[in-house]
Amino acid sequence: MFTVKKRFLSGVGVFGLVAMTACTAQYSNHGYVPPQEDLAELVVGVDSRATVDDVIGAPSTAGVRSGGDYYYIRSRIRKYGVKAPEVVERQVLAISFDEADQIKNIERFSLADGNIVPLARRVTETSVHGQGFLKQLLGNIGNFDPSQFLN
Question: How much of the chain exceeds pLDDT 70, in percent?
Answer without folding.
Answer: 77
